[in-house]
Design brief:
186 residues, alpha+beta, L-fuculose-1-phosphate Aldolase, eight-stranded mixed β-sheet, globular
């Protein structure tokens, strides 16, 4: 919606370069000139490019920490925003038992408990990037497929753009199921 969201793909690993959507562009109307090539620190590598998203560093953190990742997608949806607010004090929430969990790479059964972390929303992206980096580098903390930012949206990733997009679709389905289930409780 509007100019929300930002997307990136890993263009090279050595050195790490990302192609990131430019800031302020409507994502349904992107053209070739609406992308920015950045280095591993989110700095543009080609003179004259437009400004990349303010959140480029969050893409870099994932790409740096996970060599298997080829695409990082960030979206703003109603369900991710509502749940990130509702469960913020708990710093996340668990999703379990839904068949669609198997749509997240590496999950082979609905009999799975999947934790979704929620990070505080801040305009200080370097601080947020350090928080995310601490979690993504620690396998015990559960940042395997994505995370939420409080009252903001979802970050997810995959080996390529297709897998990352599938993860968005799966998360969005699960978020809506969880929220609707909570509304139906007696």
């Amino acid at each position: 919606m509007g100019t929300s969201s930002n997307y990136s793909v890993v263009a090279s690993r050595h050195p790490l370069k990302l192609v990131v959507t430019a800031s302020g562009k409507h994502k349904e109307m992107l053209a070739a000139e609406d992308f920015v090539v950045t280095d591993e620190h989110g700095q543009p590598t080609v003179p004259g490019q437009p400004k990349s998203s303010a959140e480029t560093l969050l893409h870099c953190v994932v790409a740096n920490a996970r060599p298997e990742v080829g695409a990082i997608l960030h979206t703003h949806s109603v369900w991710s925003t509502v749940l990130s607010d509702y469960f913020f004090e708990e710093k996340g929430f668990e999703i379990e038992g839904f068949e669609m969990l198997k749509g997240l790479s590496g999950i082979s059964t609905h009999e799975t408990r999947h934790w979704v972390n929620i990070f505080p929303n801040t305009q200080d992206i370097p601080v947020l990037a350090k928080q995310v980096e601490a979690f993504i580098q620690d396998p015990e903390k559960g940042l395997t497929h994505g995370y939420l930012i409080h009252q903001h949206g979802l970050y997810t990733w995959g080996k390529d753009i297709d897998e990352a997009r599938r993860h968005i679709e799966v998360y969005e389905f699960l978020f809506e199921c969880l929220a609707r289930k909570m509304m139906l409780k007696r």
